[in-house]
Amino acid sequence: MIIAERKPLEKILDMVAPFKRICVLGCGTCVTVCMAGGQKEAEELAALISIHRKKENQEGTVEAFTIERQCEYEYIDQVVERLKGYDVIVSLACGVGPQTLVEHVPELRVLPGVNTTSMGYPKEQGVWVERCLGCGDCVLHLTGGICPITRCAKSILNGPCGGSAEGKCELGKDVDCAWHLIHDRLASLGRLGDLAVIQPPKDWSTSHHGGVRTTVREDVKVDRGE
Amino acid sequence: MIAGSKLERVLNSGHFAVTGELGPPKGADLEQLKHHAYAMRNHVEAYNITDNQTAIVRTSSIACGAVLVQMGLEPTIQIVVRDRNRIAIQSDVLGAVALGIKNILCLSGDHQKFGNEPQCKGVYDIDSMQLIKMLKDLRDEGVFCGGEKLEGEVKYYLGAVENPFADPFEYRVDRLEKKINAGASFIQTQCIFDIERFKKWMELVRERGLHKKVKIMGGVTPIKSLGAAKYMKNCVSGITIPDELIDRLQGAANKKEEGLKIAIETIQQLKEIEGVAGVHIMAIAWEEVVPEIVERAGLYPRPQV
Known about the structure:
- The structure holds two protein chains of two kinds.
- By secondary structure, chain A is of the alpha/beta class.
- In chain A, 28% of the residues lie in helices and 22% in strands.
- Chain A folds into two domains: 2-118, Rossmann fold, CATH 3.40.50.2300; 133-200, no CATH class.
- In chain A, strands 3-2-4-5 form a four-stranded parallel sheet, sandwiched between helices.
- In chain A, strand 6 and strand 7 (127-132) form a beta hairpin.
- The mean pLDDT of chain A is 96.
- Chain B has one domain: TIM Barrel, CATH 3.20.20.
- The mean pLDDT of chain B is 97.
- Chain B is an alpha/beta fold.
- Chain B is 40% helix and 15% strand.
- Chain B has helices at residues 6-12, 31-39, 61-70, 86-98, 128-140, 171-182, 195-207, 226-235, 243-251, 255-272, 290-296, and strands at 17-22, 46-49, 75-80, 103-107, 157-162, 186-191, 215-220, 276-281.
- Chain B is built from eleven helices and eight strands.
- Chain B is globular and about 60 Å long.
- Chain B has an eight-stranded parallel beta barrel with strand order 1-2-3-4-5-6-7-8, surrounded by six helices.
- Chains A and B meet through helix 8 of A and helix 5 and helix 6 of B.
């Protein structure tokens, strides 16, 4: 899932200061699961903004609600008239949400309420780890299911580098060396010999370095006759 | 002979080679660098010029290398993959060749987190293994990484590093072999303080006959003070310093002399290890001591080949 965390309250308060009718809009999917931007967090943030504005004698209203996904037009369409009734929307969705909202309904003013951090999973309650960078050319079949692009600080394809010590990365003792993990995993699979292959330079054009990516599937496109 | 550099000639002639290391300054005044280079000119075959080591902004290694060439000395420029993509690296290598540089050493580079621009974007377009292969293909096949033909030809002696003190230990020999297959002709190792571990690594190297395929130079760093030793032990990635060595320094009345003695003893031990072709002396911030080390280690005068 996509992992995010709420922006510092002071930043949000600064962003919303010029506006009167404020909506904190939660998103019911990834950010709900990672407890950054679901209904609960939207209500909490609305309350915090409200209290602050009362203290500062700022006029206005702060409301909160959540839609299933801010990244799909059909869910936005269900609440579009309501959204148009606010001066500003603080979106608690990942970075995709605010952009989908303003692309679909250009008259909306939308502010980001969270920082989108990564794609990963909750390793334990309260800890989310990054596992995919979305490079567009998956190499997990070569590395025993451990991603060196994401998990190695240098994204190297022929590791481990000389900074690997006792299973940890040169970045620090709290960071696992991805290539040490890959080495041990391949050893357990009887595939250590695979590491002798010099992996060629990666084609980064499939990642963000090729510019913004659009995925087209002609077979599933709908002809709306427009 | 590939590039005909002095380092290549000495190593190929079977002499125990000696190289030094110079760290460019955090400024454009190269007088001190030139001074250090000049002072050890009769004691080393070539000088590694570091490439923004520990991710700290310094004068470029190629610029410093060109200055050494002007002085009639021989640089080995280091190239890390942290700061430049394949376009910039290949372009810089052509420039380095045009400036008369004949030795190139390929490394990953310390992560930018450790330097003075920790907020920068790390490049890591290619890794150190791919860097070796890319520069080998550029030289031997005359093709750029992307497949286009190089105009004319380029010659350089290509080296890489290996760290026998990194983990997993057994894989360090596999990795050496991989670097040889990628195109490294010489290897300089990380600083050796744990000579027993190095000997064990060399045993594995010899078992596979790798010492016959590549010239291995052991890395030696004289320790100037107890503080320096502790700093390297705790703060420099990839360096292992055994506690006994720290104790030995702690117990010594004259720390500098003890540090020199340790370095000289290490070199003498390296000379005895089958398959070690030379020593790379990294006396960073203590460059003036290199001639004394070389002399006391019995490596002076240097061979004229």
